[in-house]
């Protein structure tokens, strides 16, 4: 087993490429207008406050936490396309991030979220909650089973619809790696019409959020599979660092 | 031909959206029975050493409106300034303390509230002590990439004056946006820390 304290993993994190990420102010996504800072971010070299992070043990997981088909069901399976989502959490050095907590949430097959502030007229599915979580194995792998979410209208432009998507929240090994993002599905034409997707400046970056249909991983007569790899910030080796003991 | 570096690119961030609670705090919005409790909402165990404090406040947009759908995570050292969890090699932090917590703002009042302990001092990368602080991470609908900031304590005036991070802030007039004000509520030291996303009182956010 890899020693997570070994020197190559101890250095500072590569800086975030904020021209690759969406900027804060993206006026076509209207809510960002009043919720984006106007001042520049203050650059802060990694200190121990950013290079450390919480640990979540596999013992916190329930047996159905990564099975959205069953973890809320009471009277039968939810309605909709049965779907496996799997992949790996890697860092920018292409090394697996083991022990990463991955949380996900989504609407049901009709695009309806189970949330008290949600008012879309599509029906709630009595057997679908929409939340799940898992922890990556020693190779950084994760997987879960769910229903493919539907597209969803939202009050932004007069006729804006979100593409089918699953939200992801990922904890790496340090708070500097904390990330929330969204996964989209290969071939969905609405990906390229969405102001939230378009908050990301480059098409190349958007494509890294589009999960590939994987027929080989699909279960015949049962469940389709999509592959979605997630990349967290990588870090320098300590041999490049020039820091005092204690950090 | 030049050798390729062979690195991957970080997955780009996207907003957490208005329904982030489904994934992070399902019990808070009435999705019960999937998880026993919302992760990060557990009280600090009695065995944890340190002074009990409350940290509370609002998240406010550029129009002065309170956010009702924000989610806040905090990460902090224990009472001795050691971080629980990965990446701490100076010693072993208080084993009863997780150092991490997560709370949504109230859907009606917009108030957030953490019951935690006051952290000790941890070193800057050159070894100088940093003043006690709590790292904040804020996500919400309309925030495309999570915002990092730090809470410092009003009653740590001497330590704050020597803090290497606060010391390198060029716009000195903005430093108070990182200092939580102290009061005592029901006998418990309570620090109020409002986060202004935009405008005149805009909080300092960090690129970490």
From TrEMBL, chain A:
Belongs to the intradiol ring-cleavage dioxygenase family. Its EC number is 1.13.11.3. GO terms for molecular function: protocatechuate 3,4-dioxygenase activity. Keywords: Dioxygenase, Oxidoreductase. It comes from the Bacteria. This is Protocatechuate 3,4-dioxygenase beta subunit. The keyword Oxidoreductase applies. It comes from Kaistia dalseonensis. Residues 52-234 form the Intradiol ring-cleavage dioxygenases domain. The keyword Methyltransferase does not apply.
TrEMBL record, chain B:
CDD domains: 3_4-PCD_alpha. Transmembrane segments: none annotated. Residues 55-83 form the Intradiol ring-cleavage dioxygenases domain. It comes from the Bacteria. GO terms for molecular function: protocatechuate 3,4-dioxygenase activity. It is an enzyme of class 1 (oxidoreductase). Keywords: Dioxygenase, Oxidoreductase. Its EC number is 1.13.11.3. Pfam families: Dioxygenase_C (PF00775). The keyword Cell division does not apply. Belongs to the intradiol ring-cleavage dioxygenase family. PANTHER family: DIOXYGENASE, PUTATIVE (AFU_ORTHOLOGUE AFUA_2G02910)-RELATED, PROTOCATECHUATE 3,4-DIOXYGENASE ALPHA CHAIN. This is Protocatechuate 3,4-dioxygenase alpha subunit. The lineage of its organism: Bacteria, Pseudomonadati, Pseudomonadota, Alphaproteobacteria, Hyphomicrobiales.
